[in-house]
Amino acid sequence: MASSLTCTGVIWALLSLLCAAASCVGFFMPYWLLGTQMDKPVSFGTFRRCSYPVRDEESQSTVMLEQCGRYASFHGIPSLEWKICTVVTGVGCGLLLLVALTALMGCCISDLISRTIGRVAGGIQFVGGLLIGSGCALYPLGWDSEEVQQTCNNSSDQFLLGELQQEDMSPACTQNLITGCVHFYDKVKN
């Protein structure tokens, strides 16, 4: 199989795929915020949640349903900021996947990725990374929503977690930074 990429370009393609996969998995997983409610572990993502209170009609009480799921609709997402974060981060992940799959095809098909297409792909990848970063920056604005307040005993506010914990997102950020540096090195070198 002929490749339209240099050795550095192949490394960029593989790192792009790794970063896109890590970003998509991180976006989909509901473990961005961790806390407890009614002595049960609770976690939130932008559009998913694990463990939530439901009304038990038999006992006429509220019980915690320990399972993960999406909100019933887009309007069920607890805050406007999380709705925006969901869209922005989802579009960013989509762009990263588009570039990663195109770069991966460039490893197998000759003359698929020219110098111009490589630069455009790098620009799209940069925009995707900016969108994901913007989504992560918007996420704390929704910490004052009623659902988050219930989980942290009404001690959270925007950019203030209260009794909750935030999951560490630095591995995905580091991967995205390394991929950008490899792409920049390849473009400067060629």
Question: Which keywords apply here?
Answer:
5 helices; alpha+beta; membrane; LHFPL; transmembrane; 5 strands; 190 residues
Shape by Cα distribution: elongated
Give the low-pLDDT segments.
none
Say what oligomer this is. single chain
Number of strands: 5
What structural class is derived from the secondary structure elements?
alpha+beta
Radius of gyration (Å):
20 Å
- Overall tally of domains: 1
Ends: how far apart?
22 Å
Query: H/E series, N to C?
Result: HEEEEHHHEH
Which percent range fits the helix content?
Answer: 40-55%
Keywords: Membrane, Signal, Transmembrane, Transmembrane helix
Membrane topology: Multi-pass membrane protein
Subcellular location: Membrane
InterPro entries: LHFPL
Explained architecture:
The protein is α+β, with helices and mostly antiparallel strands and 190 residues long. Helix content is 52%, strand content 16%. It has one domain (7-31, 74-189). The protein has helices at 7-28, 80-106, 115-138, 146-151, 170-189, and strands spanning 33-37, 40-44, 48-56, 61-70, 165-166. The protein has a five-stranded antiparallel β-sheet. The longest helix is centred in the middle third of the chain and has 27 residues, at 80-106. It is elongated and about 65 Å long.
